[in-house]
Design a protein that fits this description.
The protein is an alpha/beta fold. It contains 12 helices and 12 strands. It starts with 22 loop residues before the first strand and ends with a helix.
Length: 354
């Protein structure tokens, strides 16, 4: 992987709608140590063949190419990224690329207690931990694993390691954790973290999804305002998926309203799977294979041209298209039937970083 001069800037590449290529989600593994029902509907899976998984060097090379086209934010995902051995080594490799302004990690937190310090030392900038409930019994029912204590210990380790801007992601589901909104806000205050509530999405793997289970942004704001008083939006220019709000005491939190208020118009994110398929949208059914040309020795310029052409042709507006089905009474139909998920593991959210 080459080191880039601090002064060098990359050209901006826009898609069909002018959306820039800025943010890359890198899945370093499809494996996960939890089985969250909104992501992984089955207990057993056909995992991606190990020989197809990109090495750290290959991932770094592809990331380097993306940054030449404008990417300056990288988020490490999975599956569960901490299952990838020696992840701090890869973080250090990414820090050599001076075009990357932000290296973040999304994790379920189970293994974070043992790795937080090493990741911080390696140069990781930010951490987001998934925390859908503060109740161990609910955690067990949702994840089919008894690891709630380890998640909380992982969050504590993130704080001790010195990470700033810790975020906690909560998928808000009616009838499951919708009575914990304020409790999660209070826990966030305790650990100096910003909580982000995510509307339950009908993505691949969410085979139990229904609109009746979606706790909307409007409902979340109503419940929190009844508890805390007036909630004010934070006015800021950002392509981040979360809209941020402030409570009367100054506490901020976010809501990712992908289901009821899609933000496709400002989406600058794409996803690279652990085996090198590049997806231009979370809802995309097909990806662009970057592993095959990389391993075949295709030149750097040709790989860059492939990525540039792929993004320039991008017209994905997956969440908006799913919402549009409401007009025809078709929204309750599953995005992908479980039979297709079994046939193609790339359609699962745990394989493409959610």
């Amino acid at each position: 992987m080459s080191s880039l001069p601090l002064s060098e800037t990359a050209p901006v590449v826009g898609d069909v709608f002018g959306r820039p290529l800025k943010s890359l989600r890198l899945s370093v593994t499809d494996r996960c140590n939890l089985r969250c029902k909104y992501c992984m509907p089955e207990e057993d899976y056909t995992w991606l063949p190990r020989e197809t998984i990109l090495s750290f060097e290959e991932l770094a090379t592809l990331t380097d190419l993306f940054t030449e086209l404008g990417v300056d934010k990288v988020r490490l995902t999975g599956g569960e990224p901490l299952l990838r051995k020696d992840l701090p080594i890869f973080v250090r490799m990414l820090t050599r690329n001076r075009r990357i302004k932000d290296i973040a990690l999304t994790t379920n937190g189970v293994l974070m207690a043992d790795q937080a310090e090493a990741l911080h030392y390696a140069g990781l900038h930010r951490v987001t931990v998934s925390l859908d409930t503060l109740r161990p019994d609910r955690f067990r029912a949702l994840t089919r694993r008894d690891m709630h204590r380890q998640v909380l210990e992982g969050i504590d380790a993130v704080v001790r390691a010195g990470f700033q801007n810790l975020k906690l992601d909560t998928v808000a589901i009616k009838g499951f954790n919708d009575d914990e909104l304020a409790d999660l806000i209070e826990y966030g205050k305790h650990v100096s973290a910003e909580v982000r509530f995510i509307e339950y999405m009908d993505v691949g793997g969410a085979t139990e999804w229904s609109m009746d289970k979606v706790l909307s942004r409007a409902e979340i704001l109503d419940r929190l305002s009844r508890r805390y008083g007036p909630v004010e939006p934070v006015i800021e220019e950002s392509s981040a998926p979360a809209q941020r709000f402030t409570l009367p005491d100054g506490t901020t939190f976010g809501i990712i309203a992908s289901t009821t208020s899609p933000f496709c118009a400002t989406c600058d994110r794409s996803r690279l799977t652990a085996d090198g398929l590049w997806y231009l949208c979370l809802y995309a059914k097909d990806g662009i294979d970057l592993r095959a040309p990389l391993r075949a020795g295709v030149s750097r310029d040709d790989l860059i041209a492939l990525i540039r052409a792929g993004w320039r042709q991008r017209k994905d507006r997956g969440a908006e298209e799913r919402k549009a089905l409401e007009r025809f009474g078709l929204r309750e139909a599953r995005l992908i039937e479980i039979e297709r998920l079994r046939e193609d593991p790339h359609l699962e959210m745990h394989a493409r970083g959610g």
